[in-house]
Amino acid sequence: MSFARSYIRTVDAVNFRIGRIMMYGIFVMGGILLWSSISKTFFNPSLWTLEMAQFAMVTYYIMGGPYSIQLGANVRMDLFYAEWSDHRKAQVDAITVLMLIFYLGVLLYGALSSTAYSLGHYQNEPFRFYWGLLTGTEEIGRLEHSATAWRPVIWPIKIVMVFGFFLMLLQAISELLKDLIRIKGGTV
Questions:
Q1: Cα–Cα distance for residue pair 112/23, rounded to 1 Å
Q2: Residues 52/41, Cβ–Cβ less than 8 Å
């Protein structure tokens, strides 16, 4: 139980801080779109603004996801849920969090595979590629670029996705541990 409580405290603290910082990401995206409007109106239009705003939105959304899970800000069907006891809510939440953990595991694997592809690894084994990068037996290949006129490299936003999905997975495990503690009658 002490390990579970320290895990919950640590993961919640990290995701809380990151989430509070990411809340201001909407202003970054707004600033980029404001510059896009100004440059299109008064100057030559910037090629980078629309795609950079999309990257900012992806970062805002994915890095804010763990904070949203932590706050319970997810959409839930309250038709029956609101009337249940705390014990029953914890039981149902534990089952749904298990499904979320599976889903986030699939997303994380896909993000790792996609990131390996964007770094020039075109085979099916991303973990072997990452291990090879660490041991020096693999090299980064031809980097993937966007198909737009600006043509930025894609790997930075894919790394943000990997990191965000990993933090969401850790937060989902934290929520599962909280539910299990509540099921046993404890408090978090």
A1: 25
A2: no
Q: Rounded to an integer, what distance in angstroms lies between the CA atom of residue 15 and that of residue 164?
A: 10
Are residues 145 and 119 in contact, defined by beta-carbon separation less than 8 angstroms? Answer: no
Nearest Cα residue to 58 out of 171, 158, 151, 166: 158
CA angle, 38 then 39 then 42, to 5°: 80
Confidence at residue 46, expressed as pLDDT on a 0 to 100 scale: 85
Whole-model pTM: value is 0.91
Element (H, E) at 40: helix 25-42
- For residue 160, what pLDDT is reported? 97
CA angle 159-162-165, nearest 5°?
145
Determine the Cα–Cα distance for residues 72 and 96; give it in Å rounded to an integer: 13
Tokens 């006891």 correspond to: 85
